[in-house]
Amino acid sequence: MNRGSGDGRGGVNLPALRGHNEALMLDLLRGAGPAGLGRAELASRTGLTPQAVSKITARLSADGLVAEAGRAASTGGKPRTLLRLVPDVHHAVGVQLDRDELRAVRVDLAGRVVAEGGGPLDFGAGPESVVEAVVRAVARVGDPAGLPPLGVGVAAPGPLDHRAGTMGRVTGFPSWKGFPLRGVLQGRLGLPVLLDKDTNAGAAAAAGAWLRAAWPDADAGRVADAAPDAHAYPFAGGGPRTCVYLHVGTGLGAGLWLGGEVYRGERSAAGEFGHQVLLLDGPPCRCGARGCVEALCLGAVARGDFPEAARILGEAAANLVALLDVDRVLLGGRVVAAAPDVFVAGVGAVLAARALDPARPVVALAGAGVAEGAAELALGPVFGRAG
């Protein structure tokens, strides 16, 4: 295997792995944004020969996935031709299922939202009702020209089995246990479907925010957050780092982005953050335990005490930071959206007070939603990442 020196993601000069090399090339061009990269840069970063790069980019160009982006300034020789990804040639759909609402988005290959919709959802009405809602939502955000999406990512409340595509015993909704949501939706939609927890999709969305910042907005023709603020775009100017995404909505959970990918654990059960006990013999939680961070935090929200909710969330986050040594804590969900400054400041204050190291993690808003993250996970295979 001939590996490049750039980021360690080497290509392979073997015909049998043509798909891997094409995905690797597309991933690099996606990260480069509209400015693109030259063939020599692609060869250097992948470790592939110039001949292999030329053949692969020719195939990608023939498929409409890659186009010329102009020429680089001459350094004395012939100006280099730059290549770029063509984002709007394909799309993916992401769907977020919450306990009381649904949101769906269609994104292009750069992760930009080109269509969205949503509405109320009764998760307690049972699987059949929710399946019908998802099918309708995917149709509503579909390509007007009729081009089917590459795949559909569905983000749902956990616990669930990501590998098997089945739902677990969602807190408060026991009828969902064992329901094969992924398989049923694949049968109804006739498309590849990925099922994951909403918090994992949120982590994927947050980690990919820096990529979307490099591409012109799909509607307005501008560069999205051309000078992004770290408060909103924590990864601006560089690739994803190790982080945790904390989602506060109708429930409370965490998504873990470790080692450059979503960490799900051996049984897809990682991130059940909301049911760590903070107060022994505290108020009952709907999971059956007492004193869980979810019960305490959402109880404060119900009283309208957002500073107290942020403090409780911060205490639980500090436990997670001490355990995993992450460098980013990203916040999202409808409750956070209702008082973003309160939550960023409150969680940050607790982490600062409990920090054992001066280099404490940055606290920021996630910068993207769960539905966008579900679509990002569905796009993963295009860019050489498992869903």
Task: Give a description of the structure.
- It contains twelve helices and 15 strands.
- By secondary structure, the chain is α/β, with parallel strands linked by helices.
- It has a five-stranded mixed β-sheet. A five-stranded mixed β-sheet has the order 13-12-11-14-15, sandwiched between helices. Strands 1-3-2 form a three-stranded antiparallel β-sheet.
- The N terminus is likely disordered.
Instruction: Supply the number of helical segments.
Output: 12
Biggest sheet descriptor = 5 strands, mixed
Query: Helical residue percent?
Result: 25-40%
Low-confidence stretches: 1-8, 12-17, 220-239
> In angstroms, what separates the terminal alpha carbons?
24 Å
The fraction of residues assigned to DSSP E strands is: 15-25%
**What is the succession of H and E elements?**
HEHHEEEEEHEEEHEHHEEEHHEHHEH
- Give average pLDDT, whole number: 86
**Gyration radius, in Å:** 22 Å
How are the strands of the largest sheet arranged? 6-5-4-7-10
Structure class: alpha/beta
How are the secondary structure elements laid out?
Elements: H1 18-32, E1 37-38, H2 39-46, H3 50-62, E2 66-71, E3 81-85, E4 91-97, E5 101-108, E6 113-120, H4 127-140, E7 152-156, E8 160-161, E9 166-167, H5 181-189, E10 193-197, H6 198-207, H7 209-212, E11 243-248, E12 252-258, E13 261-263, H8 293-302, H9 306-324, E14 328-332, H10 334-338, H11 340-354, E15 362-365, H12 370-379
Parallel strand pairs: 4-7, 7-10, 11-14, 14-15
Antiparallel strand pairs: 1-3, 2-3, 4-5, 5-6, 8-9, 11-12, 12-13
Helix pairs in contact: 1-3, 2-3, 4-5, 6-12, 8-9, 9-11
